[in-house]
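Intended use. Records such as the Major facilitator superfamily (MFS) profile domain-containing protein entry shown here are meant for training and evaluating sequence-to-structure methods. They are not intended to support clinical decisions.
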Amino acid sequence: MPHSETSTIAVHDYAHHSSHQKHEKHPEGRPGHITFTDSAEGTHDLALTRTRTHESHNDNRPDLSFPFATTDINRAGFTDEYRAVSESGFMAADLALRPVPSHVYRLPQALADPEKARELRQMKLVTWKEADPEDPRNWSNAYRWYITTVCAIAVVQVAFASAVVTGDFKDIESEFHVGEVVTALSVSLMVVGFGIGPLAWSPLSELYGRRPIWMIPSFIYVIFNIPCAVATNIQTLLICRFFCGIFASAPLTLAGGTISDVWDNNERGMAIALFAAAPYGGPVLGPIVGGFVGETVGWRWIIWVNMIFAGVVTAFTFTIPETFAPVLLRKRAETLRETTGDLTITTEQELFRASISQILVETLLRPFQMIVEEPILLLMSLYVALIYGLLYAFFFSYPVVFGEYYGWNDGMVGLTFCSVLIGVALALFVTPRIERDYLRRAADKGGLADPEDRLPGMMIGCWFVPISLFIFGWTSPPAVLPGGGNWVGPVSSGVPFGFGMVVIYASANAYLIDAFPGYVASALAAKTVIRSGSGAAMPLFITAMYHNLGNGWAASTWAFISAAMIPIPFLFYRYGRAIRSRSKRAAA
């Protein structure tokens, strides 16, 4: 584990409220402790030890273990309760709260109201203890990498499922007597489910923990593969694929948070790189496997194979323990209240749980409100949506080029996607280096990095997407006719595309999290909905687009659109701070 510094602070639990306060060094002379003395109340020493502080760590950066969607942050603000450790296992509630990081300073209502503040200062928030074995960050590196690997594979599996049916569209069309667009809905509707499901799974995981949401939806998703495989009409197949998408979206929702639970900010570079690559590498595997399975034993066995894969992965997700700090500490608080009878022992989530109406606003209304009001969120989401949509566009444009012009079977067409996997693998080596560059920038600024310091990754990756599309379009027939090794040109286009899309996504996702630390849940929900909408729409018209415009100009159209997006990270890098200063929600 990387070295981390430790600081210790002792505070009086009336320090914010007495008019007779003074501070002096601790009478025992313990270095690093401060005792606040009140002439009327005497002294109180509450040792708060913060660990894993690093030059990249910043209290104003969002803690992804904070229950954003289910906490009333207007009353409570933010707290370091879930990341702090203390000798006693408690911290004073009134001293634990702080304003939501924004250029608009708002004191939490619980502190602004004197009566509420007096009630609050009697409460003790449960924290982790020093070297606490129940703290997921203290688990062994091997176990944390096991959890990370299971999370990444779970994301790969559900992403794989969305595209695996493209391996044998022809048999689906002939059996159910439907056209290409209707068959493409088997992909689109599952991707729509990816966008809808997280709106429910995210708040539910904050209320009940990550573990039950890992287990229950994943199991139901496995079951919904059965009616897909035995469907006797296209309606059954499409409806069940939609429900597969809703329940399969749980790993997409939970993986990033689970990884953040077990790895701290200065440790998670490679782990987050795996998470960033998984939702883009998974769909690429789908046509590779689906092509050969459909070619040999038919489209129904594509679904059965997917169900087997999903079942095995789901069995491993059952081994993931609860990692969400608010839930773990809440259970500890409940146990302590029962054993000690001390009703002042609690957690912030218990004190300031949002109402159902507030949760609905946070998950269903605010994301769309922010899309309209926040240009950073809108343009970043559109950029991510374009990249995600282009990935699914490749699943339909490659069969046009290699199936129709080169005459390859579905299995051979699927193999062409290996080039995209090569690009994804290259991005896995580069993304951690970009993270280290970010940490260096943060260190140069005294640990207080700007959100815009996340953008160099996008500034690197943005060039590769239009380049890949121009290569694909103008090395494909009729510009370059089939024959000899001419297939190398269009196949090689997948390498720069795979590289660019992962680097862009990792950078954009980190930027949105840092830019909207008080509204992370809403910002990510907005991005997910727009991204899934793009991925769902592309399959419905890409084949017709390539037939009508030709391979060269169809690919070039998307190349020009992606080229038009290139200035976005550069403009935000230059003007992002000014734009954020005009926002009610963005970081200061």
